[in-house]
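QA checklist item 7 of 12: single-chain prediction sanity check.
[x] sequence parsed
[x] length recorded as 231
[x] structure emitted
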Amino acid sequence: MNKKRHAGNIKLSGGILCLDFVNTVHCYGCTDLGEYLNTYHDLVAWSRHVGTISGEEAKTLLGRAAGHPAEAKSAHKRAIDLREAIYRIFTISLEDHSHTREDLTVFNEYLGKTMMQSQIVKTQDGFHWEMTGNKTKLDWLLNPVVRSAADLLVSEEVRQVKKCADPICGWLFLDISRNRSRRWCDMADCGNRAKASRFYKKNKDSNTVSSSSKERSALSEPKPKIERHLL
């Protein structure tokens, strides 16, 4: 039996954190998007699922959210606004249009806040960015997503971002296949549906042609002569 998908078990087909984040709706081409991030609790569950927060951090965030519902609601709205801006920026890139100033302005506001809360820290393995920011705020868990999107936008890999070939799906993914021929976000889902659709159409067309041929054959056959016998 297939598990019902939710924020804590959704497929991670994007290949990079920021694309997995924009893929938190069931399908962009549907009348009903099928939202996976319906609440702040869902946002925490997704963050735990992708590994950007620990189990202990998740408990802390949910505890604070329970005591500060208005802040949780605001953080959830910021997450959805961020997701929509990132999605539009990448899809506009794919369609060879200029980035909309509005979307870049929105994203840069998030980026500016993230950078202000970031610092270089020393670890046993060297130096790295610490971008979690102020953990007393409920929206700090968005910072890794912002960093991921910023890094991708200014890298050569941005050329490898693709949209699923299923027009109903609309998910984005990083195509790292050898010959850059990947078409589907997930072959087991959209790819198989497309194969089934082609098979059905092919059989339907074949049956239609076969029926038409039989009808033409019947019409072209000479009618038997009916002889009247005079008594």
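[x] summary fact logged: The longest helix spans residues 187-220.
[ ] second reviewer sign-off
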